[in-house]
Amino acid sequence: MQLEISQLDLRYASMRIRDGERTQRLVASLCELGQQTPVLVVRGAEENVPGDHFVLIDGYARVDALHRLGRDVVEVAVLEVAETEALVVGFRLDATRHRSALEEGWLLQELRDGHGLGLDELVNRLGRSKSWVSRRLALVNVLPAAVQSEVQKGRQSAQVATKYLVPLARANAEQCTRLVSQLDGARLSVRDAGRWYAAWRKADPELKSRLVEHPQLFLQAEASTHGDEDRPPDDEVTAVIGDLGAVAGICVRARTRMDKRDVVASGEVQRRMLGRAFTRAREAFGALSARLEEESV
Question: Which of 70, 150, 254, 255 has fewest C-beta within 10 Å?
Fold first, then answer.
């Protein structure tokens, strides 16, 4: 089913982190192959809203990519369930995508505050432990709203926020907010954030204030002192590049084989085996992608 993009209600966009690189890859894929997978929507139930409208549950990156291409329509799959259940279904269907702990926390917060689910209901519906639910809710409860906004916009990475900004906010929420403000959109790498936080923890109150007010000066001084001493040796980087080239070659070869009639016309057992193999490969590549993103930020 196709809908006009203007019919979509994007109320849950703030629960996803904007990823410019991923969007660019989607734009390229849409140009080459078109939209391969429908986005998930539910029918809007609000009164006094003119015309048919649908709430987008999953597929925000695809809609963003289509919008950038100037497309007016999107292929959708309509979930004939309540909005609360649709969010749960979207979470389960999206389990193979690398989702940050903050994104999971935003979803839990929405289900709790916007849809009235208690702790036990969250545990049962999402199939997670009480500890998992409580930890992720704690993340979004501790991190100041202004800092969360920077993460949502992609200006600071979820890894940096979870690993360093959350413990900073627990110790001093005001300084956490001020630090991100003073960075003025400059994206911290995991390495730089770790160095800054280690220095902040050891500092006296006066030096802590200076570190918060002038984080770039500290990072510049650290770069001139340490240089690239903690980066992997060149031979290791070369080996990783070679491995990635091999992955690309294997993907091309597998795609070529998939185009052959004997694969397409295979039996039910073989198709199930193929599906399981693809799931394992996708999960492994997702873990690799997450690790590479840590190095690139």
Answer: 70
**Range of 70's domain?**
2-82
Distance of CA 151 to the CA centre of its chain: 10
% of the chain surpassing 70 pLDDT: 85
| CA distance linking residue 74 with residue 35, whole number of Å | 8
CA angle 233, 239, 240 (to 5 degrees): 95
- Burial class of residue 5, CB neighbours in 10 A (0-12, 13-18, 19+): middle
| Residues in the chain, overall count | 297
**Quick check: helix, strand or coil at residue 94?**
coil
Q: Please report the pLDDT score of residue 48 as a whole number.
A: 53
For residues 189 and 251, state if they share a domain.
no
Last-in-domain residue among 226, 245, 271:
226
Ranges 83-92, 217-226, 262-271, 277-286, most confident? 83-92
Mean pLDDT, all residues of the chain: 84
In a domain, 54, yes or no: yes
Report the number of distinct structural domains present in the chain: 3
Q: Residue 252 has which token pair?
A: 């091309």
Structure tokens at 218: 């500290």
Confidence at residue 297, expressed as pLDDT on a 0 to 100 scale: 45
Question: How far is the C-alpha of 173 from the C-alpha of 57, rounded, in Å?
Answer: 32
The backbone region for 69, taken as left when phi is positive above 0, alpha when psi lies in -120 to 50, beta otherwise, is alpha
What pLDDT is attached to residue 46?
A: 65
